[in-house]
Amino acid sequence: MLSLLVLALIAACIVPLVARVVGKGAGLIVSVVPFGLFAAFVAFASVVERGWVRSEGWRWAPSLGLDVTLRLDGFSFLFCLLITGIGGLVTIYSGGYLTDKPRDERSRFLTLILLFMVAMLGTVLADNLLLLILFWEATSILSFLLIGFDSRSPRSRRAAIMALQVTAGGGLALIAAVAMIGQVLGGYSMADAVRRAPELLASPWGAPIVVCIMIAGFTKSAQFPFHFWLPNAMQAPTPASAFLHSATMVKLGIYLLARFEPLIAGTGWGRNVMILVACTTMLVAGLQALRAESFKSALAYSTIASLGILVLLVGLDGPAATVAMVGFLLAHALYKAALFFCAGSVLHATGTGTLRSLGGLRRSLPFTALACTLASLSMAGIPPFLGFITKEFLFEAQLESSWELAPLAVAVLVNAVMVGVAGVITLRPFFLAPKKEVRIEHGESFSLVAPPLFLAFAGLVISLEPDWITRVAIRPAVAAVYRQPVSVDVAVWHGLTPMLALSAVVVTIGAAIVIFWRPLHLVLRRHAAIEQIGLERLWERSIRGMLRLSAAITSRVEHGDLSGYLATALTGFVALVGWAMWQAGAGLRLPAAEPVRLAEAAVALTGIAGALAAARARNLLAAMIAVGLTGFAVAITFMLNGAPDLSITQFTVEALIVVLLTALLLVVPLDAPHTRSPRRRIGHAALATAFAAVMFVAMLDMGSVVNATPAADWFGRMSYPAGKGHNVVNVILVDFRGLDTLGETTVIAVAALLGASLLRARGVDDGAARRSVHYSFHAASRPLFWLLLAASVMILWRGHDQPGGGFVGGLVAALAFAVLSLARGVGDAARTLRTAPVTLVATGLGLAVASGLPGMIGGAPFLSQLWWEPGGGLPKLSTTILFDIGVYVVVLGAVLTFLFGLQREAAR
């Protein structure tokens, strides 16, 4: 399964490129990917049919709960068949629907569709909850991109942002739930979480976990009060609406709620909440469906009502409810995707989707009319279609559950509305006479008629020949959700039953709605107050209010005064540390008296003198020299106390700071006037004194205690046996804590990218950035450059056994280019570099990541380093050198990004 996901991801990025070459037939070629996956999953049918579970796992960082664990059971198998099968039909349909679009847009759309399919498969197959979150959020992001596919349309952009806001908010709730589950259980397996549901509920986090899971499910599946994003999402191209917003993505919420149903049911109130939300959603969606004016909006509101039915079935108890939920999920995916295809064909052919503007299209679009008729009959629950069977399942579940008849009455009423909607969207566009002639811009094609016809007939064939789908998909899915085998009888005729009587009542009321659609529709349209229950305007007002509040807070906090920021931070630090000291109640402990070491005392006094001089300096050049003096004093202190790595790094950083500041001092006034009032200066002096006093007392106290150092002792002992290096600091950075270093390197890379965007060259001639320098500096710069560059390589190479490493080596290399740019100009330094600094950043980050792959391929955790010691006087080799080179290159590129950018800015 993992190989299938990887291959699908690669294919999603490569295969749609054929759309740029093939043109109109691209959809048929691209459909090979989802249909191939469909066939691959069908191969697992024999496993799923027996009720077995297939699991695959790949351990990455088990101690952190990070592993790729996939789990295929009956429920996820059913979803995989729907995702890949309907996904293949969507790609075929897209080829015909987007025939007038430029080839690059077709390619982009097909790429997004395939990536979405991979994200959906990953979500329903993931057993590790952290992995599920990753794919869950990917579906939200890809949905955002598909809804806003027409980026030139303000309505599309608004709908995309609204959908992302709602679904991403639910994603945050899911993240919170998973974090709490991990805190309670110590792991992130979804199967384990469901099995240990009583343990979760017994913890203090039980109720919050259930609430967060329900919020995540309700937002994804458009339940009240989060339902309003789905009708707006109809701004997406119709193939995306058929795939995302009817058949697959919106059912992820149902998937999540069904998986965690034992946990929700164990609360005592979880079922009540789901049923109340579901009934409210059904009523609101049914009312709005009667007011809908366009083909797609009517389908959207009926989809929300159907999702409410699914949530209701998850909330009901008893095996019949699970059977009804699984059956209705399958039937709804088939007929609703087909109806969206038909709506798209009508829109593609006529250029309008408003129902009152359409009519008589059965002559121009006969196959579309046939597909719409068959799918609408299934949606209306007319025998012998699958929709009729699942509707009987629904009524049977409600009659057999322990709940009162109120949900049943709501279900009957809303299903009647769905019958009415099914009748209207079929009769008005295709069979009733239009008020005025409808112009046909595009006719039918194979790509446009084959997918809806296939789905429409599938709903009929499955109901008449249900053996295979019942055996390999429906029954295993029911058993997976209900957690024990359940008898499933998919048949059109069950005799004269109460369910059949309820179905007849639904069809009768639905027929009346069709007959009286126009007056009912007009009455509801005239009541603008009904629009308020959509909550769309309330949501937008809330968002605007939050933006105003954040702007007000930002104006007070982000005031642009650097000294004010520093004063706030220091005040908070002094207050917290002082309060902690006071709460501890212990007296001040003084370190044991030791002889004064004159060398260290002289260095300390030099650093103090530099700090005082910097504080008193009014000339920027003098301040820079004084600050550098303090920095060098700190570096010497590191050296005297056995920290050569820190010392070398500090020396290099101080030198680079001087270079960077020099580039700015060339264009700013050196003499800075006083900008603070005497009162403010007194306040800052008092704050600095308080901060110094707190730090002094803290260091005295810490120096008086000899703490045990088990971690340091262990790293010292294991440095060479485990990491093959004598430099403990470097071994920790590239081996023991390599993932931390990779994270820090990524932060540096991101900072460099941001710096490149802020300091990009804007019509600045690199020659203008060069200033006249003394001849001796100009003449010595090139030899000094090569000397520093050679030193950086030596520091890099020796870092595993002696002081050095990739970070400090990169700093020294950057210092070499800094000398060259100051002496000969940015242009000369950039030409010597031969590539853009951001390219170095990307290359270095790639090398750092790649260094961890060989060990992982061999079965070890990511960033486990491999060693080769040939002997015979040859040096030992390791993947750690590749990691260090990556860090070296990232640091070099990041520093040069800022250096070159600042020098160009200074020349403007």
Explained architecture:
The chain is mainly alpha-helical. The chain has 41 helices and four strands. Helix 17 runs antiparallel to helix 18, helix 29 packs antiparallel against helix 30 (620-640) and helix 36 packs antiparallel against helix 37 (806-824). The model has no long low-confidence stretch (mean pLDDT 86).
Largest sheet features: 2 strands, antiparallel
Radius of gyration: 34 Å
Which structural class fits the helix and strand makeup? mainly alpha
- Uncertain runs are none
Question: Mean of the pLDDT scores?
Answer: 86
Oligomeric grouping of the chains: single chain
Number of helices: 41
Distance between the termini: 56 Å
Helix percent reads over 70%
Task: Please list the strands of the largest sheet in the order they lie side by side.
Answer: 1-2
Q: Rough shape?
A: elongated
Total number of β-strand segments?
A: 4
Concise description?
Helix content is 73%, strand content 2%.
